[in-house]
Design a protein that fits this description.
Length: 138
């Protein structure tokens, strides 16, 4: 004989695969959304850094000039006397090299950002497929 309790239990078994599939799909969506949010945050952080660097470029140049003048004073103090033209030429060359180096670093970071974004997207795709049909562990 069937009791009302056993029929309710068998109905939950019938609904259980549907509910399980729905919960599994929601879990996959949450994980993929988390990875996409991490990618977006990383990209926005890099873009914000580059824009901030461009907006405050004069401050960086002033800092480089301050460092160059401090080095000039140190060299002058250590060696005695060096012609002012020589020290100014050295500081100008150092500023130009620093500018070129910083420009190259920014270009490299921006170039690698897109590669990193692609790697994160591939990882999100891999996670979605892995969570959809996990491989047997045992």
């Amino acid at each position: 004989e069937h009791s009302p309790h056993s029929s309710a239990h068998s109905e939950s078994r019938v609904l259980n695969p549907c509910v399980r599939m729905l919960v599994h799909g929601v879990a996959i969506a949450i994980v993929v959304a988390g990875v996409v949010c991490a990618i977006t945050g990383f990209v926005l952080m890099v873009i914000q850094s580059v824009l901030s660097l461009q907006d405050h470029w004069q401050v960086y140049q002033l800092g480089a000039q301050n460092v160059a003048s401090a080095v000039q004073k140190l060299v002058l103090h250590a060696t005695g006397s060096i012609p002012k033209e020589v020290t100014e030429e050295i500081s100008q060359n150092a500023l130009l090299k620093a500018e070129e180096l910083l420009s190259a670093i920014v270009a490299e970071i921006v170039g690698n950002t897109w590669r990193t974004v692609l790697e994160f997207l591939m990882m999100a795709l891999y996670i979605a497929f892995w969570l959809s049909t996990p491989m047997p562990v045992g």
